[in-house]
Design a protein that fits this description.
By secondary structure, the chain is α/β, with parallel strands linked by helices. The protein contains 9 helices and 6 strands; from the N terminus they run H-H-H-E-E-H-H-E-H-E-H-E-E-H-H. The protein has one domain: Uracil-DNA glycosylase-like domain (Uracil-DNA Glycosylase, subunit E, 3-Layer(aba) Sandwich), CATH 3.40.470.
Amino acid sequence: MNPAQSPGPVAPGTGWPEDPATPATPVAASAAEAAALAASAPDLGELVARQSVCRACPRLVTWREEVAAVRRKSFMRETYWGRPVYGWGDDAPAILILGLAPAAHGGNRTGRIFTGDRSGDFLFASLHRCGLASKETSVTAGDGQQLTGARMVAAVRCAPPENKPTPNERDTCAPWLAAEFRMIAATLRVVVCLGGFAWQALWPVLAGSGFEVPRPRPSFGHGAEARVAGPDGAPLLLLGCYHPSQQNTFTGRVTPGMMDAVFRRAREAAGLS
């Protein structure tokens, strides 16, 4: 079918590159169902499949699918993913990279967080320079990009209007993040939070996973560091990094050197050679 005749969203199991879901993947239609399906996922593969078909937030579902149907003029002949953007990367990572949410014409189009927009271009170039990504660009799911020792997720898995999820949407999506965090916690040494929203979204996940959360909670800032201890006493380093939004990168609030410094610090702390 001509891409212009299939604007999206993409139905599960119909051939989209790296689609983790099938037509049989259970779909959450409410916050309670999202929490239950996240908690009962038997492994990481099934968890991300369930993430990728979630319909628990009506406003986000309507928005992401409207964007996928209408599309931006420059992408008019492309099929949009139009579904939640699931976590991806190393299944046993030393570093977790936590962002806000997929962009309407970025991850919501390409099927991968921080892929296909200028924020992602900035981020992946830094990850490549720091030895955490196999290529300096990330164009779409299935393009051969790989993360090395790292995994990338969003606090909210669907593209929100004006890039602003509501507190209720954040909380509804939190069980997906919490379940994914618990599945990778054994190897995790560092979490890099891209922006204040991600920094704030992480603390309840840590507390719910048995980590000792300091009070008051450390403030977010670029280069901010905080250490927490897990249930087994193992340390986890949290690093703050300004979000690579166009507003931040165009104004110089965050530069390539500033972002590289954060990811080099993450590599060092994670013990990656």
